[in-house]
Amino acid sequence: xxxxxxxxxxxxxxxxxxxxxxxxxxxxxxxxxxxxxxxxxxxxxxxxxxxxxxxxxxxxxxxxxxxxxxxxxxxxxxxxxxxxxxxxxxxxxxxxxxxxxxxxxxxxxxxxxxxxxxxxxxxxxxxxxxxxxxxxxxxxxxxxxxxxxxxxxxxxxxxxxxxxxxxxxxxxxxxxxxxxxxxxxxxxxxxxxxxxxxxxxxxxxxxxxxxxxxxxxxxxxxxxxxxxxxxxxxxxxxxxxxxxxxxxxxxxxxxxxxxxxxxxxxxxxxxxxxxxxxxxxxxxxxxxxxxxxxxxxxxxxxxxxxxxxxxxxxxxxxxxxxxxxxxxxxxxxxxxxxxxxxxxxxxxxxxxxxxxxxxxxxxxxxxxxxxxxxxxxxxxxxxxxxxxxxxxxxxxxxxxxxxxxxxxxxxxxxxxxxx
Length: 419
Fold this sequence. Notes:
Blueprint lengths: L6 H9 L4 H16 L7 H9 L7 H11 L25 H13 L16 H21 L3 H20 L4 H24 L3 H18 L2 H17 L3 H12 L2 H5 L1 H17 L3 H17 L15 H14 L3 H14 L5 H17 L3 H9 L3 H4 L2 H17 L4 H12 L2
Helix pairs in contact: 2-4, 5-6, 6-7, 6-8, 7-8, 8-9, 8-10, 9-10, 10-11, 10-13, 11-13, 13-14, 13-15, 14-15, 15-16, 15-17, 16-17, 17-18, 17-20, 18-21
């Protein structure tokens, strides 16, 4: 409760003999590692955390605290993400989040001021400035996901870029590059809306992103936009549209010139075919995704928004597809491989994979290992977003399959007390 001392967090500091000033410095250094800019947390904020005046740290501070202490936010006595208290604003409304967001842009060597009203000739420096802002947007998306502020900021940057073109002169090459940046900002706004499940706001961005990418003749951004569209349509329950969008991405020339893009397109297509119950097409797409990935040059430079895709992500998508098809053994195999390949900093992806692994093992009737896998999910993530939805489904299915099992009883007790 707000105003009640956070004994767990205070005890951790006391047990480790870490003073407020020292912890403040450590947290700010972790923020620098995450954003490229030294953090702005002050000692007064840490005192408020100790006193319980702030029970739900914003996303960036939460991650920094977890890195410093080695514990989850829930393990430090904080309210898990997704639960709020009156003094715990959403991340996009949090002033610390706002400062961190601006810090990421500053670290990229940019300012967030409007362009000069004086007409001039645009050049490569303008493209570089806006690309730096785009890199900051991608960085904040990786750290926080699709917040409202990120969506609005990306959309505003897209409009700024288009306005810049209409108020200044430029060569055809520079104009093409700037249209590409505007399309990329729009695609980022679209993804933020999808990730935040604001689907009614996402679809208009698709039309805008495709138009701008067409003006730029930029097939990479078009690939990204159609990829996001497939996920959006899937969440809207429009399965045929999801498959059509994935096919549109797969048909672009970038998938022929670079098998890395082809791999992602095939992997996403596999999940959409699985949603439609087309097992043959889904399994074939998984195989083609792996073949393409194996042929790709993994050292090749690609845009920062492709940084999320690797073997672990491919196996994660294959796990999901096989779960939808009730291919439990294949789903378990891909989940295990995902866990061995997953980068150590991706806690949410690890939680998702353990939840999927639990469902795959439960589908085979392996109650004890399924419960063990589900209990591996960190308490602070168990009730959050997609992870929480998967574990809710696991709980329902476990109860139906083995209502009298002691493992089921143990799971229910664990689930009841999970943060």
